[in-house]
Amino acid sequence: MAVVEELLRSEESGAISFGNHKLPRKAKVEDYKHAGDLLKVKTYNEITKLEKNGMFLYESVPGTSVLDFVEKEDGVEFVVEGDEDAQITIGLNDDTEYEVFVGGKSTGTMKTGLGGKLSLSVELGAVGEIPVRVVRV
User: Fold this and answer.
1) What does the pLDDT read at residue 127?
2) Which long-range contacts link 1-5 to residues 24+ away (Cβ below 8 Å)?
3) In a domain, 2, yes or no
4) Helices marked H in 18-101
5) What's the pLDDT tens digit per position in 33-68?
6) Rounded Cα–Cα distance for residues 38 and 25 (Å)
7) Residues 94-132: tens digit of each pLDDT
8) How many structural domains is the chain composed of?
9) Measured between alpha carbons, how far is 132 from 137 in angstroms, rounded to an integer?
10) What does pTM read for this prediction?
């Protein structure tokens, strides 16, 4: 397992990696420039939160480390890592239906409301890290 020591970094692929679920105290990075956007991350072992241009994008309770987070036209995909099961909320399009894949298997479809938020649970306790993909239906 590899936490993101620098809290927020750009990957060569154009993705970002962020968060550090091992930190005992809150840490943050603000005004990080990536692909024309300004990102802000707050993270520690109890929560990880990412904002893009002042708007909500990702939150997990407890804190997680997120690798290769990519926003696509039809959704997002990333690998999430943590020491225990986590509740993740992702900011997507308002009033839109998405299919959620955790560990390569579909967990079904979910619809976002007017706020565009979609919540899902990931069981990390036994595996440590797992790929997540959310795709508009």
Assistant:
1) 84
2) 1/65, 1/81, 1/128, 1/129, 2/65, 2/67, 2/81, 3/65, 3/81, 4/65, 4/66, 4/67
3) no
4) none
5) 999 999 999 999 999 999 999 999 999 999 999 999
6) 23
7) 999 999 999 999 999 999 989 999 999 999 987 889 999
8) 1
9) 16
10) 0.95
> In what order do the strands lie in the sheet containing 105-111?
8-10, 16-18, 65-72, 75-81, 129-136, 97-102, 105-111
Q: Which one-letter amino acid corresponds to residue 23? A: L
Structural domain range at position 56: 8-136
- Separation CA 99–CA 49 (nearest Å): 22
Nearest C-alpha neighbor of 132 from the set 113, 92, 44: 92
Give dist(CA 3, CA 27) in Å, integer.
14
Question: Which residues sit opposite 127 in a β-bridge?
Answer: none
The H or E element that residue 98 is part of is: strand 97-102
Half-sphere CA count of 6, side-chain side, radius 13 A = 8
Asked, for residue 87, whether it belongs to a domain, the answer is yes
CB atoms within 10 A of CB 28: 12
Contact yes or no for 66/88 (Cβ under 8 A): no
| In a domain? residue 3 | no
